[in-house]
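Q: How would the C-alpha cells look for this protein?
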Amino acid sequence: MVFLKLYLKGVLTMLDDIPENNVSAGGKADEYNRKIFNPVTAPPGAPAVKTPLILIAEDSPMNMKLFISIFKKLIPGAEILTAEDGAKALELFKIYRPDLVFMDIQMPVMDGYETARNIREFEKACPEKKSRIIALTASVVKGEKEKCENAGMDCFMTKPLNYKLIKTIIEDLQKELPVPSK
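A: Here is the predicted structure in C-alpha cell form.
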C-alpha cells in the first residue's frame, strides 16, 4: 500500500507541469488530434542532437500523460505523436514514419498486436527504415512476450512503466539516428 501511494504521488508530481492540451483528444487524425509535443527548443548555437520521433499508442489518458512526462525529461525537444487506438496509431505511422513506437497491447478499434503486424507489413513495402516497436501491457500472462514478438514487436514492457528501461531504449536508438545537419 505504501509503494502504491508513493508511486501515484510520483506520477502526479511528474504530471503537474504538463499542459492538458498535449494529449490527443480523439476523433479523426487531423491536425488537432495529431498533437506533436515539443516541450523545449534548443537554444541558438547549441550542438545538433539526435532526437527520435516517437509515437505513443495508448488508450489511457493517465498513462499517456505519464509517457509524455517521461519523454519530456529524457529528451527535451523530442517530437511525440499520440494515438488513443491502434487504427489511429497505424494512420499516424504511415504518415510520419516514427523512429520509436510505444504500443499498448489492449486498445479499442485495433489492438496492439494487429497494429504491429500492419506496421511491419507497411514497412515491407517501404523498407528504407524499420521502426522499433515496444509492447506495453499490464498483463503478466505466460506467453504474452512471445505473442508480442510474433506480432513484430522488438521489446516487451509491463506496466507500471520502467523509467530506466525506457531511458536505455532511447539511448540505444539515439546512437543509431543520424545527427541532424545545421
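Residues 119 and 125 are 10 Å apart (CA to CA).

The radius of gyration is 16 Å.

Upvote if useful.
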